[in-house]
Amino acid sequence: MQDLPEFLKPRPDAPVLVHPPQGEVLPLVCDSPHSGTAYPADFGCCLPLQLLRRGEDSLVQQLWETFPEHGATLIEATFPRTYIDPNREEGDINPAMLDGPWPEPLTPSVKTQQGLGLIWEKISQAGKATPMYDRKLSVAEVQQRIERYWRPYHAALAQAIRWSVDRFGGVWHINLHSMPSDVFVRLGQPERQLADFVLGDRDGTTCDPAFIRLIGETLQSQGYSVAYNDPYKGVALIGRIGQPEYQRHSLQIEINRRIYLDEDTREPSANFAQVQQHLQEVMRVVAQHVREQMQYLPRS
């Protein structure tokens, strides 16, 4: 790993980074579970790093890095989602990829059926899926990934959510992602055009409709196209956190990578600074919305 640039080197001592609010504190928690680039030394994958990096939500944490200036707690994974995916449940594993029986019942989801469960099995490029491993993974190594990476991330996020709820009586959570521009090609629908932003609330179940519409309309006013729950609705994290009936609002934001990134080099495109500036306005609008809604929160 000594020949890798610093941002790609393993960081087993820091699987998750928590950026606290700066100045004003709001019940606003944001997390970027898929932007990590610190590739663990024990990955044992058979693919070159250049191809592996296509699984990253590259630079998402940088697009939103000033959220703490608006009163939010920002949480980011440093490890890559292709190693272990924080936006999956712990039992979302394909038993066929293991070298032995898992000690507890597994609950593989449709994501695992697609090869994109807790432990990814393939990388897609231009509609072609390439296997990530030429071996079975040991039960012990998957358990170690869960213990050292998945659980610390979930613990940090759960603590931030719990703190906001305990202090303010509610929370607004935004799950931050990016999406490859060829999503519909991968889905076998090449005639469809992907929006610049896709907002997901699991079909209206994880947040107040006014919250997701506010963000969508702000983005549209900046000239972006916006879709709702198509093709991404949100997965484990917003499904677990979002309980609007208890003033726990959670949604997912997916950004089309073509508007801010060179998808081959993973470097910022010429539009990066402009997108980042537009998202600053989204942050300001979100923060103001949360301030206004805080007066309606139940206090213990």
Written description of the protein model:
The protein contains 8 helices and 9 strands. The protein is α/β, with parallel strands linked by helices and 300 residues long. It has a single domain, classed as Zn-dependent exopeptidases (Aminopeptidase). The strands form 2 sheets. The protein has a 7-stranded mixed β-sheet, sandwiched between helices. Helix 6 packs antiparallel against helix 8. The longest helix is centred in the middle third of the chain and has 30 residues. The chain is globular, with a radius of gyration of 19 Å. The termini are far apart.
For the largest sheet, list the strands in their spatial order: 1-3-2-6-9-7-8
The helical percent reads: 25-40%
Can you tell me the CATH topology? Answer: Aminopeptidase
Q: Could you give me the name of the CATH homologous superfamily?
A: Zn-dependent exopeptidases
Largest sheet: 7 strands, mixed
Structural class call reads alpha/beta
What's the end-to-end separation, in Å? 51 Å
CATH top level assignment:
Alpha Beta
Query: What is the helix/strand order?
Result: EEHHEHEEHEHEHEHEH
Question: How many domains in all?
Answer: 1
Count of discrete alpha- or pi-helical segments spanning 4 or more residues = 8
- Enumerate the spans where pLDDT stays under 50 for 5 or more consecutive residues: none
- State the total count of DSSP E strands: 9
Mean pLDDT: 96
Shape verdict? globular
Q: Give the C-alpha Rg.
A: 19 Å
Q: How much of the polypeptide forms β-strand, as a percent range? A: 15-25%
> What is the CATH architecture annotation?
3-Layer(aba) Sandwich
Keywords: Hydrolase
Protein name: N-formylglutamate amidohydrolase
Organism: Comamonas kerstersii
GO molecular function: hydrolase activity
